[in-house]
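ok so i was messing around last nite and threw this chain in just to see what happens. nothing serious, just curious
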Amino acid sequence: MPGASHNQRAFAHGQFRTDYEHRPDGHELRRRRVARARGHIQAAGLDALLVWKDENVRHLTGLRAQIIAGRSALLNGCLLPRSGEPILLASGGELDRARLVMPWIEEIHAVPIMEARGLVQGAVEETIAPLLRRLGIDSGRVGIDEGAFCLFEALGEALPSLELADGDAVMQSARLVKFPEEIAFIEEASSIAEAVTEAAIDAVRPGVREVDIVGEAMRALYRLGGELPHVVTPFVASGEHMSPPNRFASDKLVREGDLVCIDIGAMWGGYFSDLARTVICGLPSRRQQEIYTAVHESLAAATAALVPGRTNDDVAAAVRRVVAAHGLEENLLGLFIGHGIGGGANEPPYIGEDLAGAETVELRAGMVVAVEPLVWVPGVRGGGGVRLEDTIAVAAGGGRALTRTAFDERLLL
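result:
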């Protein structure tokens, strides 16, 4: 949005194209994403990227595709040469539509679901290898983000001089810092995520099932034009289902005095927003308030720490200090505390990851993360588990929360 001030960009304007207000241009944004990706291809010493992950294909082509569960990196692809336009490798079911409604893609080829060995070999021999030969990079260096093992075998057999490299790291780097227009799209996704969360909160009462709450949330998501929930298996857990957390909805009935965690989020325009709130059905116990207050304060501390020049480790330490001050350090969920977000639901950098190989990443303005501390205490009547989560942009002076849903004041001490 050239010429627009930060304040003009810093809220969700609406989903429609208009003639009365300057809004982010998705087509111009896509062109900027491709140009930035080319720079990262060159910096990595690659001749091309061959990507298959949904978020990477959409990032480079704008393809919004049908998603089949469990096949998200096997349906569509994109070949992006270091110099040249993206070439779309589309599922047959997308082919005709893409040719009609995506005129900015000049070259489209049909590919099968890239899973069955024979079909994959055929796609490489008949489509992918000829493309690489035509572009003069059949003996070059190509980055790939993801694929079935048989894809790598077929490429090696068809093009023995081709060098394959890690293309996913290149795309992660290209997507790490968001353009202002990307943050505006995340703001729009956040406005839908808030509506989804509010619909779920409104459904909380004694006698409803966790799946009933999800049903109301999903109705709000699709009614408002959301593409997907952030959590494909919506996380609604009540009472003792939060100690430890069951991170999916079930037929359990919500009861008076239950904590109810809602973590669903939304995707819009190819960008995700992640949002979680925990509320009380009825009146809380003192112990539930103590746990909730600890998590609420830890989220606030993390938000304040999301400053350029600090690191993801600093943010995790801020959360842990607060939780420890409340005597709950042993009750923090053994999962990362936060994650990057954008075109991918979860993407680097990760915050508070304790497993081997975790990276320290310096924060930069324009990064967007979701911070989601979860503390659970066993043996609390009505459940002793609380998650609170916001999607937050790194900014000078402290992070700017893009999600605005209120916290449950009944649970705050």
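not much to say yet. Residues 180-411 form a domain with the Creatine Amidinohydrolase fold (CATH 3.90.230.10).
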